[in-house]
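Task: sequence in, structure out. Protein: PaaX family transcriptional regulator C-terminal domain-containing protein.
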Amino acid sequence: MHQLEADALTSPRAPSFIVTLYGDIVAPRGGVLWIGTLIECCAAHGLSEGLVRTAVSRLVSSGRLEGERIGRKSYYRLTDMAEEEFEAAARVLYAPPPQPTGWLVTLSEAETVSTDWLPIGPKAFIAPRRNDVLRPNAAVLSCDTVAGIGALRDFAAQAWPLAEVGAKYDAFLSVFEPILAHVWEAGAPPGPEALALRLQLVHAYRHAALVDPRLPEAALPEGWPGGRARALFVRGYLALTHAADQHIGLTFHDSRGRLATATAATELREDRLRRECLA
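Result:
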């Protein structure tokens, strides 16, 4: 890895990083990985074999991974529960819906609404008007902001963790803007370094994007960094993906042999990101 990258990046926590690795690499390639490959990949990020094995054990205990032993080798696959969780996260990272421009309001009971909905009364909830927000089986109204933008921003700042999410985006930008500027200038690094950098990119970005309530722009603080962070993530991911995927196809193994360099799922991800980049 280039010295600029090595100096800026720190070793991640093993369980969280393994979740990132499975989500970015393994889930779209069948969901199974040899633990030897996992240990080798994590070593490039400063994670020891002992840390990896402990983290895998915890992920098994939490119901995200399940193990299988074939001969002397151990393989770990995503559980059905984890696959659903990873698919939901992948939609946010690789194929998010357009930023909402308005709101949904429902007159419903608390137990009937998903976590996207915020209570604003005894039986009233509000959510950003996005097509991935689950509608309850109740009256749902669509509305727009027609006045009081300042008051709306004050309300949003108190109701959602926007300061915390914005700080995560700012931290992501401060680390990856100079690193990716070097990539734009020098070109993508060789496969092992490209994959290591892409994993760090996804890992850092997902910690902000998956807690972002993705509100209409009118509700966000001035200078909100989410759009800039998204653009950097998309451009960086695309710049690193060819070399990273080639390395995966050469060195990553599941119980049947090498993982595919590309699959229909990885190609769909890349196509959607390219379309977003050109939009």
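The chain has two domains: 3-96+161-278, 103-143.
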